[in-house]
Amino acid sequence: MTSANAVAYSAIGLSLLSFMISIYSLKGLASKIGVINAKIIEEAKEFRGLESYIRDEYHYKMASASFDNIRVARQAPQCQCNPNNRCPPGPPGPPGLSGQDGTPGKAVIKY
Fold first, then answer.
1. pTM of the shown model
2. pLDDT digits (tens, 9 = 90+) for 28-67
3. Separation between Cα atoms, residue 8 and residue 108, nearest integer Å
4. C-alpha pair distances (Å), 13 with each of 18, 25, 42, 50, 62
5. Which helix or strand (DSSP H or E) is residue 16 part of?
6. End-to-end alpha-carbon separation of the chain, Å?
7. Distance separating alpha carbons of residues 72 and 79, to the nearest angstrom
């Protein structure tokens, strides 16, 4: 057996060994992917449950809040301010920002 044949057989042997190691690693990789997928599905179920609970609470609070507003509107048809308010007025606030100039008007000719 020549040295060229020995090198060729060594390369073939190392290639087969590398191929077997790769196949074995793929089995472990597929297992890890399955575990990750199961965790994602479990977390998604938990998320959907929390989302449903929060949505139900939100709808309940919105329904009760809108019902309270309706009741207040029916019970107070007019302003119920205190006419005997003797509190002194507070200091004036700072002036507001200047507004935009209006659009120019059209000239009107009168005879």
1. 0.40
2. 899 999 999 999 999 999 999 999 999 988 877 776 665 5
3. 105
4. 9, 18, 44, 56, 72
5. helix 3-75
6. 125
7. 12
